[in-house]
Write the structure tokens for this entry.
Amino acid sequence: MDRQQGLNKVEPTDIDTLFGKIKDKKAIVVGDVMIDSYMIGKVERISPEAPVPVVSVTDRKYRLGGAANVALNIAAFGAEVYLCSVIGNDSMGQVFRSLLHEHNLPDNGIISSENRKTTTKTRVISGGQHLLRIDDEDASQISDDLKEILMFRISQIIENEHIDVLIFEDYDKGLLSPDIIHRITMLCRQNKIKVTVDPKKRNFDAYKYVTMFKPNLKEFCEGCKIDKTKDIETLKPYAKEFLQNNNIDILMITLSENGILICTQKKYVHIPAQIRDIVDVSGAGDTVISVASLLLTSTDDVSEIARISNLAGGIVCEKVGVVPIDVEVLKQKISE
């Protein structure tokens, strides 16, 4: 077993070659989509009705969030991406489709339902500070009818396109369930498509026979029913057991300020985090799974996958709000 400390310098020409390969890849993202809404304003007084600040709104922004942010990150590398999910047939659903079109993302995998609402997370911000978040959502399981429509849309895309990787982006908002996860995974195996997972608690044990599984430390410890620990050596036997029990090829655990631990049956690699000016961790996990999934289509070097994904996750933490990776900045950081 090896434990790698620090970042090896990767030559720019090698990165150009690797990222050039990625541009030719095609991905499907299946998961819970949402709108990240930002109400930006000024606080100049306290409400006379309650001891709370009064925010005078000066700007409002909408961004693609959840699985849609993963799709944005994939598209940022020039790869082709198809997003498959369910939204509400409501006003925010219209905003969601408009945002897809604005970013030149196809919407043929998006299903609008009269019986669902479009998940919207509204963050109230003043003076650069996050004051409040309001979640407007329906996290119940989608109906059997919607599951069949979702399977049909995914099957159509796989039939018509040469898909290299499918990413499950699970936010526990009701799209994914053990049965639909199993059916999609088996469809991908039949078509020799790699499958990667960014899990949440509800379906943690439902992902079997996937290529890469990427929980954060809290999710992994809760899913394996162990006490949360930051000690890498303590995690290793649990990581190996998890891989074996679930027939998973690669386990990537994001460790926040301690970097990333990536594991296979034969190898453990720990990539420490670089010191950064962390502004907002929103969307960092989306970026890590996006970059790792794309790299997985073009290299089998898990050390390289972990290093570059770790850098990418750190870069987006320097930005306010949920934003996709800037590929040119990433290439610069890799070559430094």
Summary: Residues 1-10, 277-281 have pLDDT under 50 and may be disordered. The chain has one domain: 12-41+54-335. The domain at 12-41+54-335 is CATH 3.40.1190.20 (UDP-N-acetylmuramoyl-L-alanine:D-glutamate ligase).
